[in-house]
Description:
This protein has helices spanning 2-25, 28-49, 57-76. By secondary structure, the protein is an all-alpha fold.
Amino acid sequence: MIVILGILLIVIVIVLIEVPSLLKKGLKKELWVFGILLFFGTGLNIAQGLQIDIPNPMDWINVVYKPISDFLFGLLR
């Protein structure tokens, strides 16, 4: 629980530092991208803090390309 509170405290500090300058400059699209990335990053950090197993993106890439690789190597033999 302390880990989650620490992460959320850091996120609040980041928002308080970054958002006013983005609003002042009128950067609406950048603010949306910042918010989305911060949301996903916060979620991943909380999951990692709770020691939830997060799959590696390379595992998904291997699942997609392994059959193609096996097929091509079978043709080359």
